[in-house]
Each structure stands twice: as structure tokens, then as C-alpha cells.
Design goal:
This protein has about 425 residues and is an alpha/beta fold. It has helices spanning about 10-25, 50-65, 75-85, 95-105, 110-125, 150-185, 200-210, 250-255, 260-265, 280-295, 340-350, 365-375, 395-400, 410-415, and strands spanning about 1-5, 35-40, 70, 90-95, 190-195, 225-230, 235-240, 270-275, 305-310, 330, 355-360, 380-385, 390-395.
Amino acid sequence: MVGCYPSSRLRARAEESLEELEALAEAAGAEVIERMLQERPTPDPALFIGRGKAEELRLCVEAENIDLIIFDEELSPGQQRNLENKIGCKILDRTQLILDIFAHRARTREGQLQVELAQLNYLLPRLSGKGTMLSRLGGGIGTRGPGETKLESDRRRIRGRIARMRLDLEQVRTSRKLQRARRQGIPVPIVALVGYTNAGKSTLFNALTQAGTEESSRLFATLDPLLRRVTLPNRLEIVLSDTVGFVRKLPHDIVAAFRATLEEVQEANLLLHLIDISNPGWREQAQAVEDVLAQLEVMKTPTIAVYNKSDLVPVGASGEVPPMSGHRSVLVSARTGAGLQALISEITQELESFAMELELKIPYANAGVLSRLHEQGRILHEVYETDGVKVSVSIPRAAARPLRRYLIQNEKEEH
């Protein structure tokens, strides 16, 4: 694994990034033998690293019988080709590694479509010199023109595949829009979990929903979106959404291809930005998430900064909640349950606008309505009168519509 950075001032950050690259490589099933870091003012246009470092890598490959080298930056097609010729083994960059992990982890048809679209978009400008590697893509797009070269036919085939992928994903988006329209008919607020990969989103999701989804320390353990309904203490029902984790240098093709999934983030009424406070680089990780959220144009969505893994923070620091500009903050441990009640309270306060207070008069003949109010809302005041029960109730807006006929204001207007 190789990283290249412009100055010693950034060496610590570069080491952290290489550690993360090692974790990504292990998540993909690789065994990491060696890590290298080169400090350069700028990357070499032809090889990304210097020629001396390339020669050092070649000797290391021969000595250690290495069959794969992964670079911590995105390589140009020419750099990747030159490095393979120079060093004599397969070369991957960070983007290809992430795409490979995504391809192995996607379980739903939607997730698989999104990953394949990102892979094809990445592959298209890198066809030159790839020989017959594209035969595994299968499927042609019709008859080939006379005299068409292998490279041109590969490009045509991939462009046709990309067009089909986009049509399939557009159908997914249409289906999601219909589902969202049904939700909007009965307005239920959406709360989306976002955060760096391995920040503990799935653990928190399970703690809040008892969904029993996979919890893992592997990077990108969750790719496909998960949605569950949760009822808050004020009886407000919400939809909690668990989303794909983000990383530094998340490939743009991934963000674009996962647009259908990330629409849940774009449509959310509240974001829970989960941050692994036990990680020394949590500030950089939080900023990487903020960068992706900026790409999604959701920076104005109300957000709670959830500092997770407080049980792993050294004693004496666990009571401190770092400030995060413009956001509410809460310190929790999704694993032990510490701080979860405080988090639920913060969520409830942020979503107060989804509940409304009503003054109702319920006739005794409709006593079932009164029972439903006790189940769905929070009774603020209740007075039994000769012709019915006068009730003040805080209730979700979705449950308020059938109660219009009992509004005291309506009763006054009728008189």
C-alpha cells in the first residue's frame, strides 16, 4: 500500500489514511504485507510516485512475492498502466478498492445496480490497454460496425450497459417517489443516520429499533438502506433510516451512483450525524461526512451530532461533548445504552413541529375516540362534562386529521 503526500506537516494525517486503507484492504480480503509513504511536493505525472520509489516497489514485489499494490489516491489511467509495466504486478487505487468492497457487500438488486454503475463509469476512461478483460461484462448492444476495433466495441458495450443501469435505477427512484408520496399523505418524519463508516450506525439503529441488523467492525458492513418505524415518548411515530457509511476521498462515482439510496438522506427531516469519539481522527472523519453532505445539498437540514463510543473514551474526558457548529450535540454509547435517553429527548425536541395540540370535545357515544387519543397522543388536560369529554391533547399531525369534527372551534362555529 502506497501513499504520497506533499509535506512532513501532513505526515500524521497521511499515516491515518494509510491505516484506513489497510483496513479497507483487509475488508476486501487482502493480506497486507508492507506499507510505504513518500513525501513529494507534487505527484509524478507518469508514475504518481518517483522513479526511485517505483524501483523500490519492484524489488519489494520480487522479494516478497507480492501480487497486488494499492495506492491511497486515485490514479489516472496512464499512471496505473505505467506502474503495472514498471513494477510488474497488478495496481489498484483507493477508488477501485472501495468499489470492489461495495460489489461484494451489496445484497439488494438496487445496491448491486448502483455498484455496477459506479464500476462501469470508473472503467470507461481506463479501457486502453486492458485487452480482453471486459469479456466478463457479457452482453452486446447489437451488431458491430464494419472495421470496428475491439477497444471501440468495448466502449460501445459499456456505454450501452451504463444506459440500461441508469434506466433501471430511474425505475428504483420512481418506486421510491411513490413510497415517499404515500408517506407524505400521512406525514411521518424521516430521521436518517449518517456518519463515517464503522462509526456505529448499525449498533445505534438496533438500539433504537431492536431491528437485529448486522453489527460489524468491518468497513462498509451496511450498504443497502434500512428503514424502521419508531415511536417517540410523545407518541410521535418516525421512520429511522440507516445509510451507507462515508469515508475520506469517497469516490464521486459512488455518491452519484448511490443517489437513489441517498435520497433518503436528502428527504430526511432530521439527520443524526454519528461520530466515533474514540477515534483520534474523529474531526477529520466528521469533516469528510460534512463534505459528502454538502455534495448532497443537505447542510441546511436540522442535525444532531451524536458522539458515539463514549465507553471507549479515557476516564475524565467522557463527560465532555465537543461543540459542533450549528448542531445539537449528545454523547452516547450505542453498545452499552449510555446516553440513549438523552438522544431520544433531543430527537423529540427537534421534531416538536410534527406534533400539534388540539382542544377537542368527544361525545360519550364516541368513547372509542377517547381511547385512541390515549394510545396515539399525550393527554394534557381532561374534563368530563354532561355531554362529553373536553380534552387537550398533543398528537402527531398524521393522527389529527380524523379528529377535525371534534374540534371545539368547529363546535363554536356551528353554534
